[in-house]
# Entry
Amino acid sequence: MRILISLISLALAVFLCVGWSQMGNDQQPTPQVKTQKIDAKQILKDSEGIVTEISPQEIVIEKEDYTGEEESYTIDPQVKIESTDSLDDIGVGDMVSVKYVTDKDKKIVKVIRVEEFNH
# Structure
């Protein structure tokens, strides 16, 4: 009987020692940070000017610096229109700002905002 009690005591002591030694080691693994390469063509760029031509597929604006330089942009089919209900509301003479991405040599408008209506 003494041997049984000694063995139980020894097992209990080992169990407690192992448990106590593991208490401070509950460290969570360091989370892995996922990095994502940003494609330069996906960075939105800004431009502003007066609309000289517009269609459902393209908008041409005279740059805001009034040098007469015009820029042509392809309109993304999912373009976001701000400050008006639709692309149909934008006309020649309106002051607009556009946010666009470049894809090869194309400038693709993602957002159009009318700053001032002039038609």
In short: Residues 2-22 form the longest helix (21 residues).
